[in-house]
Amino acid sequence: MIYVDCAKGRRERPMKWNQVIWDETHGGNVEHVEEHDLTTDDVDHVLENYESEGLSRSSGRPCIFGHVPDGRYIIVIYEEIDDAVLPVTAYEIPGPGERRQ
């Protein structure tokens, strides 16, 4: 497991967590993110700059939405563990106002 400290920086709002937990083992959250053509940096970016939040319709877990640096709009589904966040998965979705194809 990798624990990444979240430095407070140039954000409009502070990140809700002090650490992000990344699991690089087989079947871990890094693998789940990479299966969807995203990187941990993409997810970290949205965790720091999310645009909205809600609950996953399929799992009931909390989720956030935002744009990665290349412009794709993604959902990040996560669990909170004390003051840390464990991204469960993330994937691209249609942006606000776009239709699903």
Note the topology.
Elements lengths: L1 E4 L13 E4 L6 H6 L5 H10 L2 E4 L6 E6 L5 E9 L2 E9 L9
Task: Give the gist of this structure.
The protein is of the alpha+beta class and about 100 residues long.
Can you walk me through this structure?
With 101 residues, the protein is an alpha+beta fold. The protein has one domain (2-92). Helices cover 16% and strands 36% of the residues. The chain has a six-stranded mixed beta sheet with strand order 1-2-6-5-4-3. Strand 4 and strand 5 form a beta hairpin. The N and C termini lie far apart (36 Å).
Descriptors for this entry?
alpha+beta, 2 helices, 6-stranded mixed sheet, 101 residues, 16% helix
**Structural class by helix and strand composition:** alpha+beta
User: How does the major sheet shape up?
Assistant: 6 strands, mixed
Number of strands: 6
Distance between the termini: 36 Å
Number of structural units classed as domains? 1
- Order of strands in the sheet with the most strands? 1-2-6-5-4-3
| Number of H- or I-type helical stretches | 2
Overall geometry: globular
Radius of gyration: 13 Å
Give the uncertain stretches in residue-range form: 4-12
Roughly how much helix do the residues carry, as a percent range? 10-25%
Tell me the β content: 35-45%
Oligomer: single chain
**Whole-number average pLDDT?**
86
Order of helices and strands: EEHHEEEE
